[in-house]
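hey m, so remember when u said the tokens were messed up on ur end? i reran from scratch. heres the input so u can diff it against urs
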Amino acid sequence: MSFSLERTTNDLQDEAMAVAEGAAKAAFGTRFKRVPRALFAKLSLPVISVIAVVAFVFGATMDVLRKWAAAADSIQRETTLLSFWSLTLHEYVLSFTTTLAMIMYLCCVYRDPGRVPAGYAPDPESLLANGALVELKRKGGSRFCKKCVKHKPPRAHHCRQCNRCVLRMDHHCVWVNNCVGHRNYKSFFLFLFYVVVSIWHATSLLASHAYLAGFASEPTWRDDSEVYRKQHRGASAASAIPVGVAEVAALTLAVPLTLALTLLFAWHCYLVSRNKTTIEHYEGVRASSSSGAGGNVPPLHATEGEARHPYSLGLRANLREILGPRVLCWLAPGCSIAGDGLAFANVAEYGKWKRARARREEELTLS
């Protein structure tokens, strides 16, 4: 019975997809025939849940702002809470941050995290001869994926869920139904930044509205609270109860989300400041360089006196590696980290680059 039901569901999905592809072909041409399949293939239950929760909290918060606007109009002044920010500015800022967060989220969902090019075959001996840093397996030797039957570039790892190797893999995230890697890590980081700003903003507005609507007792809030009570009494019972339940539900969702997303964003701020991935933090990096002491660069979690993480170049350089060379564009929407994902700046090569730059500056000064 379950097999028959599953087969029927798959048949319905295939028929619906065929209809969508036919409609896209008729409307936009053969080139866009596969667009519906590409769009709906990523819409898993967790992805739909994230979009639904963000839309619900955003809608409830905008409804609160509309109530505040009605209350302010009824008493011909702004509420006490909004003495510094106008209601319009609240709406614009919340809409702006939420929109950017969702753009970055969709970019993280639909952007390929990075594939290992066909025919990629590094030459460790020549790289070591040039003083470059080469990642090694734990038992020594170049890194090779037996499942993909390919050489693995530095910082690449095999994802069991995606069934392929991913460039600069950070982790596989079920909430984006995708790996977070070289091509979409910046969008993931910016999504966390914008959604944290947005959720803190929404939570503060929802909490303030709950306080004003039912728990205000101080004299400075009394007038505002009376306005809200009169407004709710004037509405019909059928419309007042669902609105109140929606606001409480939105606040109940927003509070734990605010804490969880803030902690997650703080964790990735730490990783960016060290130029690490989540996998590198927990598993470490084994590398070799002809310029290192004894030719070996120790793994992560280095103790005092040992070498640091081989890709950590200092705070400013690490931020530029992840967010881009232009500081003013660090928070601008974008998906990919600069570079092809096959080679990364590291302590072995960065030191030579700094010495060469200092030499050039010294030559210019002497001349």
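this time it looks ok to me. The beta strands are 133-135, 144-145, 150-151, 157-159, 164-166, 171-173, 178-180, 287-289, 296-297. if urs says something different then somethings off w ur setup not the seq
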